[in-house]
Amino acid sequence: xxxxxxxPAGSTSNEDIDVLKYDEYVKPNRFIESLIINKIxxxxxxxxxxxxxxxxxxxxxxxxxRKMIEVSCNGLINCNFCEIPESLGxxxxxxxxxxxxxxxxxxxxxxxxxxxxxxxxxxxLGLFGEHLPIVLRKATKEDLDKVQKNLIEEEKxxxxxxxxxxxLNLTMKLVSIHYQxxxxxxxxxxxxxxxxxxxxLAKELASEFKTRIExxxxxxxxxxxxxxxxxxxxxEYCCVSFLSSFRRITTQLATDQNxxxxxxxxxxxxxxxxxxxxxxxx
Length: 282
Prior knowledge:
282 residues
């Protein structure tokens, strides 16, 4: 999910770390973000490159009357944003670990993006006004120790799951396992060519781990997003670094752009056509 590196005891206080983060990372990045946001609002992006057609700008960003951040968390299925209560103020920075409340459970997440740029991201994705998980607080060293224990338990669950799948003769490929922070639920993410009757498997898993079990079938693109890696371009997979949803990619996209090549060269590590084929089609 993410790397957890707690600050060594007796090295630097949390207050000093926050000051360093603001001076070395947040301050210059917020200045750059302010320039980008201003260009978006005044519609001054690539006007010479697209011949001032104006079609790529869309409508003005609709800002919500609440503070939000973008996060990374395996337990928040299909949700990459969280709401910040007023009590936390401006104490949160990118890469911080936080505890969030989602429905009736708590999860640990890592912040990816803060500030006004989050609203622009959400506007681009067509999100507005939906129910979001709430940030409770920053994660403490004790919280991160608990996460480390959960990660160890996840590793231990891998051979048990695979042994059960083989015993029950199920056609499932395990992708990843995730324990909720409060251990109320244990997720098993898998891929399969068809539907799987996993009722007996779920009973066995619940009996072994003494918690609620959720088995989720995902696609090969979702698998690539969870596993991660480097594409043929030499950069991190787009689905890992910035894509939050997948578009339908067809061979027609390649034909329209005169990309005459074998399907092998146009396919990503997941075996599907590369997501980047859709980036310049408009």
